[in-house]
């Protein structure tokens, strides 16, 4: 493990230990938060009983669907917008302002359109994730060194071949960054949407437990969410770094 | 001497953008490259050397005048038989060294066996045989530039253009790369045009050196070196070498100063 990695791990353990201590000594009362160790046992109980399996599967499916939609549409839109500089000049300020829009305000509207099903959840997850993929694709294509285009021309490649064989491979590090961000945003949006209104799912269960003063379930499931997202993001971060190293220029 | 490539009254003007006035970057100039010669181009920075190269290979259209290669016009489209090694590293980081070099042959649909033979021989030619499976990121700057040279040579160009390919390398490596370049030139029989900002490199490698003026770049003089064909970096000790570089500097001194002046 690298030094930064070790420090990161130590920091997380220290934070958990401080929380544990604060909860055990009564500094934080049990109605507000249970000690981290109890969150682990609570999660274990939930997983062992299988009581949340259907919700986990529901959220996982929605998230995966949202990520796939976000990445594909974001990537395709990025490639198209990059090829049309006039359109891009029109859209650029809108893209910059995108994450300032309280997009969840539109969730009730989506529920009205699609009903209380998985569709509005997937749609909002995809909407929230796609712009980061789009922006990363644009930046990546902007940063393709001009010499790569010259090389493509010298190899006699047409515009489409140049895009597929040279420009897009040269953009891969940025695409992975976009994927990482799209994953994070899609998870946030899916869980938040389930939290607001949903027939089932982790967000729904967490909100239900919250209203029920069922701290063990709430914190157990929160721990599950945080762990799952952290593992996925760290994995993508690792891949991202490896790719950046390989793509580094002198 | 057979004419191999030619520029005829070529100019290049950057059109005015917004309030910026149009800018004449190059010419008018004429250039004739004879088959099999080693020609170097030196000049102050910004004098249009790279633009000249782009026009000659067909990456840019001249604003007026024309370029031709082997008797046929180069009209802004790269012609078969011309190979370029760029100033910047243009190796593909997502491919191994071997796949980088094989790229052009695969595009042309050369069969597998011939591709393998030609790639292996190009790699051994530039001394990278033991790095076939490495990725460019694992190589030094000089080795990456050799990947690009092999990638160009494997297509057997009859005219090789190099745009300051050793610009990023230290002096000792440059001298050695210069020797390699002379060997490539002798063994392939190709016509070579090298853009360099090193007077020593130009004096040591070339049959003729074109000295360019500050922008808009034109030829001030084309110097013949009269070196034997089987020369090497050892000629830097030759008394004529010093007078050659001295002469070039005398021509370039004032031009370089002009190119540094504001505006």
A few lines on this structure:
Chain A has helices at 3-24, 36-49, 53-83, 85-97, 107-114, 118-142, 146-154, 159-196, 202-211, 215-247.
Q: What's the layout of helices and strands?
A:
The complex is a heterodimer of chains A (250) and B (263).
Chain A: H1 3-24, H2 36-49, H3 53-83, H4 85-97, H5 107-114, H6 118-142, H7 146-154, H8 159-196, H9 202-211, H10 215-247
Helix pairs in contact in A: 2-10, 3-6, 3-8, 3-9, 5-6, 6-8, 7-8, 8-9, 8-10, 9-10
Chain B: E1 3-14, E2 23-34, E3 38-42, H1 49-57, E4 64-69, E5 72-73, E6 82-85, H2 97-107, H3 112-125, H4 141-153, E7 159-163, H5 171-188, E8 191-195, H6 199-205, E9 208-212, E10 219-224, H7 239-260
Parallel strand pairs in B: 3-8, 3-9, 6-7, 7-8
Antiparallel strand pairs in B: 1-2, 1-4, 4-5, 9-10
Notes on the structure:
The complex is a heterodimer of chains A (250) and B (263). Chain A is mainly alpha-helical and 250 residues long. Chain A has a single domain, classed as MetI-like (MetI-like fold, Orthogonal Bundle). In chain A, 81% of the residues lie in helices and 0% in strands. Chain A has helices at 3-24, 36-49, 53-83, 85-97, 107-114, 118-142, 146-154, 159-196, 202-211, 215-247. In chain A, helix 3 crosses helix 9 (202-211), helix 6 (118-142) packs antiparallel against helix 8 and helix 7 packs across helix 8. Chain A is globular, with a radius of gyration of 22 Å. The mean pLDDT of chain A is 93. By secondary structure, chain B is of the alpha/beta class. Chain B has two domains: 3-81 and 159-260, 3-Layer(aba) Sandwich (Rossmann fold), CATH 3.40.50; 88-156, no CATH class. Chain B contains seven helices and ten strands. In chain B, the strands form two sheets. In chain B, strands 6-7-8-3-9-10 form a six-stranded mixed β-sheet, with helices on both faces. In chain B, strand 4 and strand 5 form a beta hairpin. The longest helix of chain B is centred in the C-terminal third of the chain and has 22 residues, at 239-260. Classes of the chains: A mainly alpha (250), B alpha/beta (263). The interface between A and B is medium-sized, with 20 and 24 residues.
